[in-house]
């Protein structure tokens, strides 16, 4: 278990961190984002050129022609991002048989508009997803995508069929560097109780025993800090270390406080885009309190410079205000 070292009366006392942050390299997330990178699904890098040979030419052509379906970032994404990228990555599907089983059950659901077999098979993971991004019944969510059934089936064949080449030609090359970053991240958070600090600062509790950070090399130039579920988050492994650790601290907060934007989305008083931007900027502001200074990362797409000043004023007036109340007031000030 990661440990926090405390010096007291000249003696170093080893204190266990109750809820550790753990970085790891997993095949599933790395593989699905490998395919997104090769598809150039909203981002491009030299990674795509380096490994284009690892996907069959007809599959690569289809992926690039349909890249909009699996493009993602800044809280938005194509229709198939969750079922064909995020959920397989969350499950860490890592063999052709696992991908085949997953897409066979999902494809059957698309054909008959009945996803009970799929949901029974992945019941535990779907239940955990309720803590993150399912606000409606999962079956209803999938039924809204029935027109994408043929694309889902094709993605299933692509994912199962190209995994052996990835495991033989790509993963052995990429894994060692990812492992090295995992070791550095784990050493950092062995002495930095980020979850404990967020819990103390906000009064909210992280709902799981640990927070899993999945490092992926294929996300170069792509969306960073991709939440797979409440307790699992994917990051680009090549992110500069100080930036990476601060982003992890930030994301710890977005997960602990996720119920705040959910409340606001359900109210339907503020625009969804305003809620998302204000929430991310609030977590950036809180991160500054957690780490003791302005974070090195910016959130220009969300108007962070203006929001930061607004939150400084609101927090000074009422430091115990609930996050959703701060967001309501901040959006009004931002728009006013």
Task: Explain what this protein looks like in three dimensions.
With 336 residues, the chain is α/β, with parallel strands linked by helices. Among the domains are: 28-35 and 53-174, no CATH class; 257-336, no CATH class. 58% of the residues lie in helices and 10% in strands. The chain contains 15 helices and 8 strands. The protein has a 4-stranded mixed β-sheet, sandwiched between helices. It has a two-stranded antiparallel sheet with strand order 1-2. A two-stranded antiparallel ribbon has the order 4-5. Strand 7 and strand 8 form a beta hairpin. Helix 1 (27-39) runs antiparallel to helix 4 (81-91). The longest helix is centred in the middle third of the chain and has 41 residues, at 149-189. The chain is globular. The mean pLDDT is 92.
